[in-house]
Amino acid sequence: MNEINEFIQQNDFLQQLVAQMSLLEIVVKGLIIGIVASAPMGPVGVLCVQRTLNKGRAYGIVTGCGAAVSDIIYALITGYGLSFIYDFIHNERNLFWLQLCGSIMLLCFGIYTYRTNPAKNTHKVSRNRSNLIHNALTGFFITLSNPLIIFLFLAMFTPLSFMLPDLPFIEQAIGYLSILGGAVLWWLFITYAVNKLRNRFDVRGIWIINRIIGAVVITASFVSVVLLLTGIYSFH
Known about the structure:
single chain; mainly alpha; about 0% strand; globular; disordered N terminus
């Protein structure tokens, strides 16, 4: 292994290739985190769907994008909070327990999402086409009012080893922008799907989406727990 590392260090092309692969890994992880953080149909998700149905897709998109900006604030708080325990998380044994706890937290989150009834979050939305900025701000502040999302980010950062504070600023920026990009991609997808299926989309449709998301998160987190406990793979 040492000989391979020395060979890579002596070869500029291989160094660039490894750097690009590492950057791609950061982007992929960031996109996954952004999508998973946005996907569950909480109050903002339901509001986004309702506005898409009642006002048009643009209003649903800006609502989701407002929530995405709030998400990135909490992602930054989580990421830089981890920098204060830098030495702790870079100990392999400690990192193992953090990854295991994170996977278990994610499993609980998946179960909660699967069992949540989104009908409880529905409410009448006016058809008045209010200002787009107003719609974005409501999405932002509704999400910002729920600091518990920090625990969701923590549950995803540790199993994926998304520890950015020890990386160069450019790579950190790309990582956090990837989270934002993943969130925006989700809102673009969900508003597109709702807009296309508007005649057949109702509360049951939201409930089905919640169930699918919950099942995916449960499966992924369960697999990560098994892999960690068996020592087959560690996420770093």
